[in-house]
Amino acid sequence: MATIADVAKRAGLSRATVSRVLNNHPNVTEDKKRLVREAMESLKYVPNTTAQRLRNQRTDTIAILVPVLTNPFFAYLLEAMDMVATKNHLQLLICQTRYSKQKEMDFLELLRTKQVDGLILTSYENEWKKIEPYSAFGPMVLCNEYERNTKVPIIRMDQFEASYIGTRHLIEQGHIRIACTCGDKSNLAKDRQAGYRKALVEAGISVQEDWIFSNVFDIEDGKRVLRTIMNLKEAPTAVFTGSDQVAAGMIMAAKALGKNVPDDIAIIGFDDQPIARVVEPALTTIRQPIEELGKTAMEVMIDFIAFKKEVNHQEILLPYDLVIRDSTMSKLKSISI
Asked: The whole model's pTM is what?
C-alpha cells in the first residue's frame, strides 16, 4: 500500500510539501498541488489520517453489484437482501454495472475508499484476479455467481446439477434433438452448459454445437433464438434455456409462428419467476432459491461487519427444484407443481 513517501517520490517533491498539500496549507503553488494529486491518483493513495478516521467510522451501507435491474431475478434477490439489511438497520447501495467492466471497477472503489462497509457481487465482468484484491479493503461476498479459487465467501446453487436434471427431464420426455441457451462466459453459464452436455452424452446423444446459443438474456433474445431454431433444416424439438424470461420469449415466438408448445417444441426455463406461471402454456423450470440466496448472502455479510469476523472462504450451497408444468408435457401427461 502506498505511503506519503511514495507520493513525494512520484511527484518529485519533499514529504513536507506533500503534507502541506494534504492539509490544505495556503502557501503551496497550484502546480505542486496538481503534481501531488496526480501522484496520489496513480498510486491510489488514501491519506493515512483520512483512512484511519474512515476505518473507525461505519457507513451502515452495503453495496450490491448487479448487471441489470430489469431482470426480475435480480429484483427479487435485492428485495430479499433488503429485508435482512433493514432489520439490522443497514441500507443498500444498488450498483448497476450493465455488464461494463469499467463500471464494475468504479463501484469496487467504493470499498477501497471506505464509502461502504461491505460489497456483494451477484455477477462480475472482470477477471477475478483484478477483483479479489479489493477484498483487502473490506468484506466481500459472492452471491449467485461464483469463483472456484477465492477466499471470498460464496452463496450459490449447484448450477451444473440443476442444468443436468433439467436437460435429463427433456430426454425423459423422448427428446433427442435438444438446443441450449446460456448467458455469457461466466462460471455460472459454463456450469449450466456443462450440465446440459453431461445429460446428452450420458444418454448417448451427440452434442450439436450449432444448437448452443450464447449471450441470450431476455424475452427479445428468446424470440430471436426461437425463430432461428425453427428455420434450421433439422430443428431441435426441445430447448433448455438459462432463464424464464428467455423461455417466455420463445413461447411467444412459437405461437406467432403457429407452433404448439410442447408438441412442436418443448421449452424449459430457469429461476421460477412469476412469469413462469403466467405464460401459456405454464413453464416447466428450475426453481432457484432466490429469497434464500439473498437473505443468506446478507446474513453472512452482517456477521463480518457486526462481529468483525475474519473473512474466510466458505461456500454455502442452497437447494433447487425441478418444477414440471405444461411447456414440456403433452396434455395427456401434464402435471403441475
From this structure: 0.79
